[in-house]
Structures are given as structure tokens and as C-alpha cells.
Design a protein that fits this description.
By secondary structure, this protein is an alpha/beta fold. The chain is built from 11 helices and 10 strands. About 40% of the residues lie in helices and about 20% in strands.
């Protein structure tokens, strides 16, 4: 009916997560014949926005865009304002986006194998930029170091934008950047793209090999989906799941997000919950091993 539905995006306006949230809001408002508004609630490494969802009324009127930090933050942060496993019910995985290993254009390497050889010949000399400690951009680099057996120095920035600017300017050497942020810079020759972080090539950027072709088993990606407060009635959860899947199947939605190099998935709630289980195991082990912490 006439009740306003809110979609909380735990990031500032303007990024791919925000576009995903707004695309969902537009489609769902048409489907439901009601107002669906996006609220950007950035901060706390997504914790502020997601906490808003965790403490909302369990009636399906507050949705959240949930992201990899739901699986990462509990291991990284000394204090969590909510329990990701107990307080958030995943509804549907909407979008999947790999990161792309990009290097400054004058770094004398042209492939993942050449980069590994170069880093081994120059241990600890190369810097990799990230959007901040604990981002998939950062963790892609840490898991690469571990699996490829190389030593590089992490340089965290406040967000992907400043990191990419410094990479283009040659102030840092490489970055595992989310594809939408760097794809045009690579295609325009300002950066070199060596490989996608997925286990196989990516349909929306097929010109890049998978890092896994050189580092077997390497598989990292970012993703955005929909979640609600746990304890929301089953009938509402099932309706939200069906409607989010319907939006993801809309060819216009697929095309709009493909233009940003984002792959639309539209999973079931069970599939999305299963992904989080795998992610928690993967990142929990890595973060614990590396003793990464954010106060």
C-alpha cells in the first residue's frame, strides 16, 4: 500500500553499490505501487548503515544493501554494534563484481606471472594501494601475497578514488581495484590490467585473464545484495526474495548494471546465506592469520 519502504545503502552516494540500491528502489516501487526511497548511511566500514537495518522493525519496510563487510568486519573489528549472523537475514545476491589487478603503466610487467617474478626479484619494494584496511580491494592483495608467495607493502587510502588517482600518477605500483572504478582507465591506456580476481574469466571484461590461471585457486570478488532484519516474518521474506529475483531477471536492469561492468545475479536467499558462510570461513582465517585489526 502507501507505506514508504527504505533501502539503506551503507556507502555515500555515487558508487556502484549506490547505483544498485537505486536501481532496485526504482523497480520495486513500480512493482509494489509504493514509494521506495534510498538512504545513504556511510561510515564505520558499513557498520553504521547495516546497524540501522539490524535494529529496524522486522516488518520488511527497511531493506539494506549488504556487502562483503558483513563477513569481514566481525574478524577485523574489536567491537561490532550488531551480530551479522543473528541480526541480518540475507534475501538475494543482486550483483557480483570482481576486482582487477592493475599496475602503473610504466611498471615493466605485462602479465600476472611477470609481476610475481618482478616482486620476487624486488621483495618488499612494491606498494599496493587499497580503499582501506579490510576492504575486498585490500584483502585481494593480502591473499595474493600469501598464495603467490610474494612480499609487497600495503598502502591504505580513504576510499578507492584517491588510491586510483595516485596509481595513475605513479605514486603507488599496483592495486586490486573494483572493475567499475578502473576499467575505462585501463581501456584508455592510463593503467595496465593484468588479471581479474575471479576463479575464471569475467564475461563483462573478457579481455583479462583470471589471476587463477597463474595462481591456482585464487578467487575473490565483491558483491551487493539485499538483506533485512532477522525475525522478519517468513511470508515477507519469501515475497522480498521473489521480487528481488524478478528485478534481477529484468533485461533493462542487467543492461544498466552491465554498463558499469557489474554482473547481475539474482540468487535465492539460501544461496546468498551459503555464500556468506563460505566468505566468513575464507576471510576469518586470513584476517586471523595476518592479525589484521581495526579499533
Amino acid at each position: 500500500g502507501n507505506q514508504t519502504i527504505r533501502i539503506i545503502v551503507p556507502f555515500a552516494a555515487g558508487g556502484t553499490t549506490d547505483v544498485t540500491g537505486r536501481t532496485l528502489a526504482e523497480r520495486l516501487s513500480v512493482m509494489w505501487g509504493t514509494s521506495v526511497i534510498v538512504e545513504n548511511v556511510p561510515g564505520g566500514g558499513t557498520n553504521i548503515g547495516i546497524d540501522r537495518v539490524a535494529k529496524s522493525a522486522p516488518d520488511g519496510t527497511t531493506l539494506g544493501i549488504i556487502v562483503p563487510s558483513l563477513a569481514i568486519n566481525p574478524f577485523l573489528m574489536a567491537r561490532m554494534p550488531y551480530d551479522p549472523e543473528k541480526d541480518i537475514q540475507p534475501i538475494s545476491l543482486t550483483v557480483r563484481i570482481p576486482n582487477l589487478l592493475v599496475v602503473r603503466k610504466d611498471l615493466p610487467v605485462g602479465s600476472v606471472a611477470e609481476l610475481i617474478a618482478y616482486v620476487k626479484a624486488n621483495p618488499g619494494k612494491l606498494n599496493f594501494a587499497s580503499a582501506g584496511v579490510g576492504s575486498t580491494i585490500h584483502l585481494s592483495g593480502e591473499i595474493f601475497k600469501k598464495m603467490a608467495g610474494v612480499e609487497m607493502t600495503h598502502v591504505p587510502y580513504r576510499g578507492a578514488g584517491p588510491a586510483v588517482n595516485d596509481l595513475v600518477a605513479g605514486q603507488v605500483d599496483l592495486m586490486f581495484a573494483d572493475i567499475p572504478t578502473v576499467i575505462n582507465l585501463v581501456r584508455g591506456g592510463q593503467l595496465k590490467g593484468l588479471g581479474v580476481t575471479l576463479g575464471q574469466r569475467y564475461s563483462l571484461a573478457p579481455e583479462f585473464p583470471a589471476i587463477a590461471e597463474t595462481v591456482p585457486g585464487y578467487d575473490v570478488f565483491s558483491y551487493f545484495g539485499v538483506g533485512v532484519r532477522a525475525g522478519t516474518p517468513e511470508a515477507i521474506v519469501r515475497k522480498l526474495e521473489a521480487d528481488c529475483i524478478a528485478v534481477a531477471r529484468d533485461p533493462a536492469v542487467k543492461a544498466r548494471l552491465a554498463a558499469l561492468s557489474a554482473e547481475v545475479v539474482g540468487s535465492t536467499a539460501a544461496e546468498f546465506a551459503a555464500l556468506y558462510k563460505v566468505e566468513r570461513e575464507k576471510w576469518g582465517k586470513l584476517i586471523t592469520d595476518l592479525k589484521l585489526k581495526i579499533e
